[in-house]
Specification:
This protein is mostly helical and 417 residues long. The protein has 18 helices and no strands.
Length: 417
């Protein structure tokens, strides 16, 4: 399939955005702790709160895009971040009170309005359903490339000047914002509601507590929460366990992350092409088992080569799981509520990541002394349960998609009662 320029616009912008983020923000905590004397635990608490609150903006941003258009929300998101990141750079350069930096970072995160979830909804609008797995695979290659390049560039710049690192980051956001404005043209969607409906609908949150979300989508949300918790083990819990119990150096741990990102870049698109649209449920169920095997093997790694092999296994699970889940969520989302549905899913996934980091580190800190691999057994069990949970959705394959759409429309009417 020949993808439209609209699609490639979002792919490029996502790569720029992630690369920009990696240029500056991994070094924000270092600046605040090393240069401004903030306690590391205080900064950890601050970033956790920012992450949780900004995840709420994903639901609002996604729902807002259903009414005023995806392009408008994405443009505002990028422009808002550019402005506040520039103010962070300005604050560091003038050596202002560091509280201003924390305030501007908070506003940049919340004002982002869940750009990624809106971008996913936009891709669902401009790409046919049969091509979504491959499309989301291409998007993941772009984001991983940005994440791979960003820290290297950011480390070099931050070593010279912290204000310059944030200034470069702000400029990239400005460029991405205007790239979206001029090239990401919205697709005309059927909208029977007015913008005032957004207010009546609780700014996108009312469906979570009401009965408008279908049973199938609630199942997807629950197991997405569990699996994003599993996926979050790759960073903090894995690093902590590697250092404390496996004796790996920081260089060794860093290479494991590099290996993960490199595998995604190399094989994500080809794996995406292999996943047939009507086999998404089987793909999701299988990917959970790859995660279970990979993490459990990592827990028992005595040699570094064994740890590398376990990373390879769990990364196979990742390249299958992520585009398949994004495709499933877009499939079960009513067209005129797609932004709202994807925003809700993004918020629940963020909660899952926060839960996963907490659970993983808690088990390692408090129980691995007695049973060293206990955290990885927990992760494996959760993955196996999730594999079964996704498999219960097997009747919602492509052939029965029409009936699924009907059930969703009944559970989430186009206009509120």
């Amino acid at each position: 399939m020949k993808y439209s320029f609209k699609f490639w616009t979002i792919v490029i912008v996502e790569g720029l955005m992630v690369g920009k983020y990696a240029i500056s923000f991994p070094f924000l905590a270092l600046y605040m702790t090393q240069k401004k004397g903030f306690d590391m635990s205080v900064m950890g608490g601050y970033f956790s709160i920012v992450m949780l609150i900004s995840s709420l903006s994903s639901t609002f941003g996604g729902s807002l895009s259903d009414y005023i258009g995806r392009r408008n929300v994405m443009f505002f998101s990028l422009l808002t971040r550019a402005v506040f990141i520039f103010l962070i750079s300005f604050s560091i350069y003038l050596n202002l009170n560091p509280l201003w930096i924390l305030i501007f970072n908070f506003l940049a995160s919340v004002g982002g309005l869940g750009f990624h979830s809106v971008a996913l909804a936009y891709i669902s609008d401009v790409v046919s359903e049969s091509e979504r797995v491959k499309s989301y695979s291409i998007l993941r290659v772009s984001t991983n490339a940005g994440w791979a390049i960003g820290p290297a560039v950011g480390g070099f710049i931050a070593n010279t000047s912290y204000p310059l690192a944030f200034l470069v980051s702000a400029i990239v956001f400005f460029v991405a914002a205007f790239f979206v404005f001029f090239f990401a043209k919205d697709v005309a969607l059927k909208r029977s509601d007015s913008a005032l409906t957004l207010i009546k609908d609780g700014f996108g949150f009312k469906p979570i507590f009401g009965k408008r979300i279908s049973r199938e989508f609630k199942i997807i949300l629950f197991y997405s929460f569990l699996m994003t918790g599993v996926m979050s083990q790759l960073v903090v819990p894995l690093s902590l366990y590697s250092k404390k119990y496996l004796g790996f150096s920081e260089k060794d741990i860093g290479f494991l992350f590099t290996l993960n990102g490199s595998i995604v870049i190399l094989i994500q698109y080809f794996i995406g092409k292999m996943i047939k649209e009507e086999k998404i449920i089987k793909a999701l169920s299988l990917s959970c088992l790859f995660y279970a095997a990979g993490y459990l093997l990592f827990g028992y790694s005595r040699l570094y080569i064994m740890a590398m092999f376990s990373i390879f296994i769990m990364t196979i699970g990742e390249v299958i799981f992520s585009p398949s889940l994004s495709t499933l969520v877009s499939r079960v989302s009513p067209e005129n509520k797609r932004g709202n549905y994807i925003g809700i899913h993004s918020m629940i996934s963020d909660f899952g990541r926060a839960f996963g980091v907490f659970a993983g580190t808690f088990l390692i800190d408090n129980f691995s002394y007695y049973i060293r691999e206990i955290s990885w057994w927990f992760v494996a069990v959760v993955s196996i349960i999730s594999s079964y949970g996704f498999s219960t959705l097997k009747k919602y394959g492509k052939k029965s998609n029409e009936s699924l759409d009907k059930s969703i429309k009944l559970s989430y009417p186009s206009s509120p009662v």
